[in-house]
Write a structure and sequence with these properties.
This protein is an alpha/beta fold and about 220 residues long. It has a single domain (about 1-115, about 180-215), classed as P-loop containing nucleotide triphosphate hydrolases (Rossmann fold). Helix content is about 50%, strand content about 15%. It has helices at about 15-25, 30-40, 45-55, 60-70, 90-100, 115-125, 165-180, 180-190, 200-215, and strands at about 1-5, 30, 80-85, 110-115, 125-130, 135-140, 190-195. The strands form 2 sheets. Strands 2-3-1-4-7 form a 5-stranded parallel beta sheet, sandwiched between helices. A two-stranded antiparallel ribbon has the order 5-6. β5 (about 125-130) and β6 form a beta hairpin. It binds adenosine monophosphate.
């Protein structure tokens, strides 16, 4: 099962990916998480991308492509993966096609989670994450039991730098310019599945699983 999750920042790709991992038993590969881990570890890569991440711009294609090439070549990706946040430009999508062709593989589906800018801004500015266990909350729709503290590990929740409103608006602009063209790219290839992601999360999961069952059987 090789899936790409496509959609604006805040469309719910990461949350959906975590549900799909449990159902299909393939690794969740989030390039955003990989870059945030690199920044947190203070590695050379982390130093290169730190400012790009906090401004909401895109990391150069060659850096992202190299990272993904290495990751999907690992043994745990033998039976598939869920790519979240990659590809994000047409150049990345072409590179992914080449990588998969060279490995004798292909994408089963590109799930396009459709949401409006207003919904994205509301979701992201209210998003909080646990810096320790990674659990994601929303202060409006999925709040922690006690004030901004992780239910699972008791750690104080944080707001990602790039979830501040001005950065969110910029990320949406970058998404429209650089990533939205991928909707047509995958529509032409016949792999695009469009999901209305403004509804309740459980409904999105159900619709996604129904759509995927049709593709894999
Ligand atoms: P995300 O968590 O997917 O929203 O990613 C956070 C940030 O990481 C983005 O705003 C970009 O700066 C960077 N990033 C993640 N994935 C990519 C990608 N495929 N291409 C370029 N930059 C990326």
């Amino acid at each position: 099962m090789r899936i790409v999750l496509l959609g604006a920042p805040g469309a719910g790709k990461g949350t959906l990916a975590k549900d799909l991992v449990g159902l299909f038993n393939v690794p969740h590969i989030s390039t955003g998480d990989m870059f945030r881990e690199a920044v947190a570890s203070g590695s050379e890569l982390g130093r290169q991308v730190q400012n790009i991440l906090s401004s909401g711009k895109l990391v150069p294609d060659e850096i992202v492509n190299r990272l993904v090439r290495e990751r999907i070549s690992k043994p745990d990706c033998k039976d598939g993966f869920i790519l979240d946040g990659y590809p994000r430009t047409v150049q990345q999508a072409r590179t992914l096609d080449e990588m998969l062709t060279a490995m004798g593989q292909k994408l089963d589906a590109v799930l396009y989670l459709k949401v409006s800018e207003d919904v994205v801004v509301e979701r992201l500015t209210n998003r909080r994450v646990c810096p320790r266990c990674g659990r994601i909350y929303n202060l409006l729709s999925m709040p922690p039991k006690s004030d901004e503290i992780c239910d699972d590990c008791g750690t104080k929740l944080i707001q990602r730098d790039d979830d501040r409103e001005e950065v969110v608006r910029n990320r949406f602009k970058v998404y429209n310019e650089m990533t939205a063209p991928l909707i047509d790219y995958y529509k032409k290839k016949g792999t695009l599945i469009e999901i209305d992601a403004e509804a309740d999360h459980q409904i999105t999961v159900r619709k996604t699983v129904e759509a995927l069952k049709k593709v894999i059987t």
